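re: that chain from earlier
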Amino acid sequence: MREILVDGPDGPDGVAGLGAALRVALDGGEAVLPLAAADPRLADLRARLAPAEPAEPDTAVVVATSGSTGDAKGVLLSAGALRASAGATHARLGGPGRWLLALPAQHVAGIQVLVRSLLAGYEPVVVPAGAQPFAQRFAEAAQSLGAPRYTSLVPTQLARMLAADEHADAVGALRTFDAVLVGGAAAPENLVEQAKQAGVRVVTTYGMSETCGGCVYDGVPLDGVRVRVVAGVVELGGPVLANGYRLDPDATANAFTGGWFRTTDLGTLRDGVLEVHGRADFVINTGGVKVAPAAVEAVLTAQPGVAQACVVDLPSAEWGQIVAVAVVADGAPAPDDLAGAVRSTLGPSAVPKLLRFFDTLPLRGPGKVDRTAVRELLRPCAAQATPTCRP
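^ sequence. v structure.
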């Protein structure tokens, strides 16, 4: 298995090196393990994923998951699954096109941009690293892209470009894309609506490394992808499924059964459209009432001025656990207004007992908020008497 160190085009091997290795792997050659040279977990990932040991049979790429709620795993993706995913994406979007890589290349969404480009017969264009704002670099990179053109973003990137008044050309660039895939984390409804009103062709995606990235677009499964909800939990099937986890047969057996992958997400399926409601393995028990953090986050991000919200649990002698939230907002939304919105929608138990405003939230993986880090940021505030703790 060949390890490729990628940190964007300036990495030791870079995107070009990864693209060349992927081309070989897709044709049945040596498997690829993309890693970020700057990842603080690099030594641990190498020990856990053992790049010196041969890859499991029928493996083209091993993707290290972000591990935002636990230990990272190595997801085993076959060439067949990667090809099936890329083909289904192009079929849904209207045909192969030219892709702009704006995500870390070592994550599954970035890998898929490269795979789609390779299978379409085009060299991907990469948003370069640099000191300039991302919106500016994106707009400049898009100028060299032909048509049809596609890109993939996380919600944070999209929000920053839509808010970049000093770089209005970024929104103009976004409008030129035939599709802008948005995934990696749940996209707030108000952000999607804002983008559509700005003339951006947004396609929301749902999926994970275990499904070669997004496999449900705007709630509708891609061709060949199967979706079912068992006891409230989303399960996915079809040719895009991974073969399992690197050197971890027990985890593989627990997650992959009978041609289905059991996610950790709650959801409902109505008339063939999937709605995802947050993680099944993360609820807050406060005073004996269970609160779904994703539901609270959805209410908060729907409020004017709120760009991001991350809800976590903190220990409490009185309540067992309390609902705590870190918020990124434009201006200064009144905490009472935010609490009132949660109360009227979800009831009093879901109202955050601790709320703090931040300029940004810590991330792990593309667009995924690091809940463990947020919990540690909020923990010192728990002893304060006031419910709103500002930095």
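The radius of gyration is 21 Å.
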